[in-house]
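HUMAN: Would you supply a protein with fold tokens?

ASSISTANT:
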Amino acid sequence: MSASHYTLKLRSVELRILRMPLKEPFITSYGQENEKEFAFITVTTVDGTTGYGECTAFSEPLYLEETTMTAIHVLRDFFIPLVLQYEFTHPDEVSSLLRPFRGHYMAKAALVGAIFDAYCKEQNIALAKAIGATKTKVQAGISIGIAPSLSDLLKQIENYLSQGFARIKIKIKPGYDLDIIRQIRNEFGNISLMADANSAYTLDDLPRLKALDEFSLMMIEQPLAYDDIIDHARLQQQMMTPICLDESIRTVDDARKAIQIGACKVINVKIGRVGGLTYARDIVALAKNEGVATWCGGMLEAGVGRLCNIAISALDGMVLPGDLAPSARYFEEDIIEPQVTFSSPGLFAVSTEPGLGAHVLTERVERRTVYKQLYTNSSLDDRKAIFFDDQD
């Protein structure tokens, strides 16, 4: 079929919940993660092509309001029945179809991602190429959770620098900030360093936040409320350190407004948070046109989500190292083969293989599954899910 007459029609959508233990707890200002629980989607087209999508929502509404179970709800009851009714010439049309539904960006992103993967396989193009990315390699940065001790944190930083990571990100909160950063600077000098506050501060903390200017940080990420841009604009006017917005940016319009009022000089683009690859690409393009730096943030993704992050990081507008650690940083075994690894220290090669560029290992997916449900057009009125006992 010629590209001009190409259509993609889904035969079925399989929805699962997977649980994968983390190699070590990941601690931020809003909690501790010991395992990665996530919704996982497999779409199959009428031509028999499969595509995979990973939902980045956590099990609790602490980062944002979405959770694994809210994603299951809207996917099962709204999004999947809708997309099974339509044919598409491009995955961007899926984003447009889902746009009338308010919020639930991570659920949308997972479904759009799966359809992108299937589309790219049927068109025999790599995911990065399909979204207009041109880089062949991308730099990796690392995100380090709140450590049990300063010495442990310094050891982790030394280890990651030795592996070639181009940027170090540490989590901070009031009382775990100035002294910690000062010690890092004393130990490692002028390394590329940023701090992620995950909304742990208010404008009452202005003196403490302004004191961060002493340390020449690349940026401070989301210091104020998760849904704010106004106070961030006030803060940016009083700080030399660039402010990076994360949670506050859900849509292209959010990015436009934040840039317009001077609320940030950097935007963290997370595919799940902004509703999928289509809108992530558009935010990167907007920011590039406005002279605002972007980079790809991480959400403890397993292999499918991690490969999507590498693809989006290959866009020209992504000018800073993203949170792009290898699979082995978080998991003993991933659900894809080959696992995500460096092509050379601190660098990932951008896949040129069709779709995501890796094989999903169905046996590992089955082993980590605690819920699954299959949908076809004929089964939508007979929805029966299978729940499994908790896995080790």
User: Anything to note?
Assistant: The mean pLDDT is 94. The radius of gyration is 20 Å. The CA atoms of residues 219 and 242 lie 5 Å apart.
